[in-house]
Amino acid sequence: MGYQFDFGKVLQGEYLELILEGLQATMVVFVFSWVIGLVLAVVLTVIRAVEFKPTQFLVAAFVEYHRNIPMLIQLFVWYFGFAVVLPDAVNDYLNDIGAEIGYAIVALALNKAAYMSEDFRSGLRSIHPAQMEAARSIGLTYLGAMAWVILPQAWRLALPALLGQTLILFKGTSLAAAIGVAELSYQARYIEEQSFRIFEAYGIATAIYMLISFAIMWLSSILSKRYELRVK
Amino acid sequence: MLEIIQNYWLLLLIGEYPHGKLGGLAMTLIISFVSLIVTFPCAVLIALARTGKPGIIQSIANGFVHSVRAIPLLMLIFWAYFAVPMIIGFPIDAAFTLIVAIVIYQTAYLGEIIAAGITGLPKGQREAAAALGLGYVPTMFRIILPQAIFNVIPGIVNQLTTIIKESSLGSIIAVSELSYVMLQVNSNEVTKPLQIFGILAAVYFVLCFALSQATNWLERRISSRRTGQVVVEAVA
């Protein structure tokens, strides 16, 4: 094909800077939406555990919305749709500070909150109800039984699924490129367009994604083994 | 909102067909079904390699699955967009590249589901087949796979929902599927993004929610057939 590989061209100067900036944006989106998503997921799980039909229905609707619509469309709804609701002055300000990344974090965090709350819920559901009765009958209060008997088992059961969601979220950050967040895959495409170095630009971005994904997978398998529920 | 539906419903359903390219919902469905149908045999092979004897084939299959799981689908689509025309030597439709990328990606995931079906079968099935003198190929294709695949039908249908959602990424490389068509409608209308993306979200929701309900129903049917009893719904 007569194509000369030259990784040096992409790995120096302006292009290297773009890749590093992209990596930084990817990590910012990943970490922020993971933390926000996890906290929201816990809140959603608690709301759903309380026996009150209207709020339970709302949480279920929230979960189903996020599970049955493509992640990309959720990003579009926030990025294109939400801006219309805001007054012009706020929009101008948001455009000035580059709010795409904020929209990406919000959309990804809400999406992960929905999935993670389902994981927590299925962890809770797989603890036999008799355990609660047994805990109450030896004199623990409801909260005590939750804290000392149910939750220590439930979070261990939910852990593998949560770690799986973490990997999916990391890969999902690449979708933020579609709304113009200058993260890793966005930069890879930009460099490719500027330098015509298709293989180098995509090769480096892919290698970085794989490296971090493998790290997440490796950590996941260690944590899953470490906190595996051995008594069942 | 009604106005948008009135003006664009045909575009939403079939794109510019018959005056131009097929698109819209029809395109999304075609891409999804074709992807699933092509993925299926690949996934069966990966599952067989993953659950078979340790060796070079298993290592390759393991490497493939782990690598694909480590890459975002968007990166695979970018790769396919440039690499596929280069490999086959002539330019092709973007829809085709999207299908190639989804097939590679989903082979890893669907392969895991089918592998789980295979390892989930009781060991006695394989031993009984061996006792009858069946070789590896007839054992797998006539005894193990028919049962394993039947048991994971819900997982396969669920994967179809995932593929439908993933096909929305086609809008990034200008495949005229549902999301792309709506993005164009959005740039025509300019002032109504909330309604337009609301409609888009609703279409996907109806499609995927119906499929996931079907998955739940299949799951109940199949597990009751497998255990020979009616499954009592778990109480939360």
Describe this structure in words.
The complex is a heterodimer of chains A (232) and B (236). The termini of chain A are far apart. The mean pLDDT of chain A is 91. The radius of gyration of chain A is 22 Å and the shape is flat. In chain A, helix 2 packs across helix 6 and helix 9 (184-195) runs antiparallel to helix 10 (198-226). Chain A is built from ten helices and no strands. In chain A, 81% of the residues lie in helices and 0% in strands. Chain A is an all-alpha fold. Chain A has one domain: MetI-like fold (Orthogonal Bundle), CATH 1.10.3720. Chain B has 236 residues and is mainly alpha-helical. Chain B has a single domain (2-227), classed as MetI-like fold, CATH 1.10.3720.10. Helices cover 78% and strands 0% of the residues of chain B. Chain B has ten helices and no strands. The radius of gyration of chain B is 21 Å and the shape is globular. The model of chain B has no long low-confidence stretch (mean pLDDT 91). The interface between A and B is large, with 42 and 41 residues.
Q: How many beta-strand elements of chain B?
A: 0
Which second-level CATH architecture of chain B applies? Orthogonal Bundle
| Name given to the CATH homologous superfamily of chain A | MetI-like
Low-confidence sequence ranges of chain B: none
How many discrete structural domains of chain B? Answer: 1
Approximate shape of chain A: flat
Topology, number of strands of chain A: 0
Gross morphology of chain B: globular
- CATH hierarchy, class of chain B: Mainly Alpha
Average pLDDT of chain A, rounded to a whole number, is 91
Number of helices of chain B: 10
Range of strand content of chain B:
under 5%
Largest interface: A-B, 42 and 41 residues
Could you tell me the radius of gyration of chain B in angstroms?
21 Å
- The residue-averaged pLDDT of chain B reads 91
